[in-house]
């Protein structure tokens, strides 16, 4: 008789109730759910990536320190390479922050926000304290400092412009948090190219600041998973202890370098997305039963007079995928990505049908 195998006995008790991240993969629909750049890659960048890939050695491990890419990022963001670390998407950097600083301790998260902070925190064995934003989704610096005051709190996480609410937090408010806490303050600027004030200039003044950025949104590289983090060197040294040595594959390192060498077409597209967002915002505000929230990013949060789950399902049945983000502070709210104009038109006509047919 083999020894009985009881998986429940082996599974971590603190993860029993954890629901795995649902990446919502539905082929063949209009995808306005993941805040990606909706435009195809600029041809010259695509061709350069393929040219370099053809001339490279796939049998060799990649540079674990991604030196060339970090030098290019350094020129782009004007932070020395020694203050930059790259990850397999910023998702990996978030879990590295949790592993290096928070396992067995606590992190404060300004909510409602990106679900990955709490999810990665729990996976790393961190306790999560939610510090709710005000009703208009702004950050109350004093509240965040109070929530972060306990000795067990290692990290305070904020996002600007915030996903899914869309609003940015001023640098002055974040500076108040940085000055008022002994914890690390992580500012996720995943949507920084679309709006808001960057906290990067504060790195010289605050040893407790960590800024996260990504190639997944404005820079159109979501499929290749490249994120980066900026911090002072003592913080980076701690993070290197938990970083997987070859976390960023050769192809992604190279492709991200090419993007930074071919920036103008990406910058033109960001400008187009912002103009389209403002038009999209005005059109969406005119739909009956819809309340729209202002956005500094490439997505729009809105509340519906119908249950958001029904709106989400109705849209999916009509071939349009968005995000139902309903939850505490966000009752009946949904988030839609600014896509290409023709995609946004399909969404606008489908949601108008749903809201007009609805019995609210
Ligand atoms: C999309 C997003 C990211 C980027 O994640 P990657 O892992 O770099 O693709 C990070 N933070 C927020 C808030 C996001 O919405």
Q: Distance between the terminal alpha carbons, to the nearest Å?
A: 62 Å
Q: How helix-rich are the residues, as a percent range?
A: 25-40%
Bound molecules: pyridoxal-5'-phosphate
Strand content: 15-25%
Low-confidence parts, pLDDT < 50 over ≥5 residues? none
Number of strands: 13
Sheet with most strands: strand arrangement: 2-8-7-6-5-3-4
Rounded Rg: 21 Å
On the 0 to 100 scale, the average pLDDT is: 96
State the shape: globular
The profile of the biggest β sheet is:
7 strands, mixed
Structural class by helix and strand composition: alpha/beta
Helix/strand order: HEHHEHEHEHEHEEEHHHEEHEEEH
Number of helices: 12
Describe this structure in words.
- The protein is of the alpha/beta class and 360 residues long.
- The protein is 38% helix and 16% strand.
- It contains 12 helices and 13 strands.
- Strands 2-8-7-6-5-3-4 form a 7-stranded mixed beta sheet, with helices on both faces.
- The mean pLDDT is 96.
- The site of pyridoxal-5'-phosphate (PLP) has 14 residues, from helix 4.
Q: Short summary of the structure?
A:
Helices cover 38% and strands 16% of the residues. It contains 12 helices and 13 strands. It has a 7-stranded mixed beta sheet, sandwiched between helices. A 4-stranded antiparallel beta sheet has the order 9-10-13-12, covered by helices on one side. The chain has a two-stranded parallel sheet with strand order 1-11.
């Amino acid at each position: 008789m083999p020894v009985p195998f009881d998986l429940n006995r082996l599974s971590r008790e603190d993860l029993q109730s954890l629901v795995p991240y649902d990446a919502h993969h539905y082929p063949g629909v209009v995808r306005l759910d993941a805040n990606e750049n909706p435009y195809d890659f600029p041809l010259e960048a695509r061709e350069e990536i393929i040219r370099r890939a053809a001339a490279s050695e796939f049998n060799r491990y990649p540079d674990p320190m991604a030196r060339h890419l970090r030098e290019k990022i350094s020129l782009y963001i004007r932070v020395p390479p020694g203050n930059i670390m790259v990850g397999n998407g910023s998702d990996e950097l978030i879990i590295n922050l949790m592993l290096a600083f928070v396992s067995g301790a606590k992190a404060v998260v300004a909510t409602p926000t990106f679900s990955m902070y709490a999810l990665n925190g729990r996976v790393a064995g961190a306790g999560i304290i939610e510090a709710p934003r005000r009703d208009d989704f702004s950050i109350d610096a004093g509240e965040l400092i109070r929530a972060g005051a306990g000795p067990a709190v290692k990290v305070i996480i904020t996002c600007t412009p915030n996903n899914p609410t869309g609003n940015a937090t001023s640098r002055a408010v974040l500076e108040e948090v940085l000055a008022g806490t002994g914890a690390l303050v992580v500012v996720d600027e995943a949507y920084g190219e679309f709006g808001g004030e960057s906290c990067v200039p504060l790195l010289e003044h605050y040893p407790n600041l960590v800024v996260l950025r990504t190639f997944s949104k404005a820079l159109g590289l979501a499929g290749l998973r490249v994120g980066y983090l900026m911090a002072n060197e003592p913080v980076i040294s701690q993070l290197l202890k938990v970083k997987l040595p070859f976390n960023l594959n050769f192809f992604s390192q190279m492709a991200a370098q090419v993007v930074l060498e071919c920036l103008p077409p990406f910058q033109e597209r960001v400008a187009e997305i912002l103009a389209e967002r403002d038009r999209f915002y005005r059109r969406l505000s005119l739909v009956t039963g819809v309340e729209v929230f202002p956005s500094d990013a490439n997505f729009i949060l809105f509340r519906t007079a119908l249950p958001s789950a029904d709106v989400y399902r109705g849209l999916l049945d009509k071939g349009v995928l968005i995000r139902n983000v309903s939850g505490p502070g966000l009752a009946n709210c949904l988030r839609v990505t600014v896509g290409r104009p023709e995609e946004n038109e399909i969404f606008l006509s489908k949601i108008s049908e749903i809201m007009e047919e609805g019995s609210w």
